[in-house]
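Q: Give me a backbone?
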Amino acid sequence: MASKTATALQTLIDLAELQGGLFSAGQAAEQGITHSELSTMTRGGYLAREAWGVYRLSTWQLSPHASLWRAVLWAQVGDPATQPVLSHRSALLLHGASLDSPAKIDLTLPPEKKRITRREPPPAVQLHFRDLRDDEKTTVDALPVTTLFRTIVDLLIDHEARDAVSYVMTHGVEEGKLLEADFRRLRPLYDLDPDLLDRLLNEHRSK
């Protein structure tokens, strides 16, 4: 392997090991690695193309969260500054608050990123567009994800996963899934209509 390719590959290894062995072409470009170099490493068997603009280290054992990383990295293709966050049912599963595997991967993006819909999302991805504060985001196994509190709020607004929400609202505090303060804020919202819930959420954001 030529020294330049070896150096580029090591850079990609350092990047991908934090992301289940995956990375985007945009991330590679930020490290000074061109599409031509990616193509060379792919032809050489060092990389495998997972999706449009998303690559995997060929020798890397697939992470249990590989499909989630594919979705997150897909949303960053062409714009590495985009900050997609796993949300809704996907977030609920990552937080260990549901055993049900969702049919689609829920991904939330800022409203100004709606232009991403010009690219057809992968069939397994469901896009949502909402503003999230920094304290409404966290990481689970290095994946960006909404906090459990924010996850429950989103599910209530969108009338999704009612059974799972009911379980977390009933057992969440005693099992440590929700903080007592979060529970007190969520509990009055549990049976409210969506319009009222939206108003209360906006009040929460403005504090």
